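Chapter review: from sequence to fold.
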Amino acid sequence: MQYLCPLCAGELTKVTKTWSCLQGHQFDCAKEGYVNLLPVQKKNSKDPGDNKEMMQARREFLNQGYYQSLSDAVNTLAVRYAPKAKQILDLGCGEGYYSNRLFTALTQAQKQLNVHESADCQLQGLDISKTAIRYAAKRYPQMSFCVASAYEMPFPANSVDLGLRIYAPSKAEELARVIADNGILITVSPGPMHHFAIKEMIYKHPKPHPDSFDCIEGFECIDTQRLQSQMSLDNGTDIGHFLNMTPYAWKLTQEQKAQLAVDGLNCELDFHIGVYRRMIMGELVAPN
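The token string follows.
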């Protein structure tokens, strides 16, 4: 996928291991292969995004397959609605778990469809956390990764065939800018009862998440799913990883955490999955 300079929006060209624009701005590739396109003047903190401890906890938890049903559901929808997608973008990709499984699913599907119109599909992962991107790039060299903000994405307009956004915050205007006409966007957000048992341990009057799907300007919602299941953890290490990858690690007391490690953890998994199609300009204007 082509990169744009985060300072002047000019096209970046790669020579050896350096990306540069005509204005002379340069961005070196890290030894792991990713490029950092988040200039220091655009950071809100010294090290934005998930820290090393959260990233490692999420990596270990996801590698155990506890959220594989979510990944499978997303991949099934991607193959159904964007089987020939060539340029894929995972916003807020983290350590690359969902990126890798999506890339594998689409690559296999396209081989079965004998898609030969152009080069093989390419997946670009974007995250504001350098720690997460460093790990993703090292583990999944078959894909591309960059450190950047989802609010100012370093990609040309109309360049993405399929976008994936799992929990990641973003702007509708940026999504509409980078996703091509008739391109597909798949989003995941928490359903009403997601992790409710844990919220009951923290809050006196816990509230469910909203039972609704987002309306994203410039997009038409063409499919929705609610994926519900019960998660049971009886391994103290897995429970620790689960808590440490979420804000629950700061909200539960040490006594509560210790008790969960002994008793086990049972809670709800509840996901809203939305599939959106990028409307073309003519469809955005109501007929006279």
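Two observations follow directly from the output. The chain has a mean pLDDT of 92. The radius of gyration is 20 Å.
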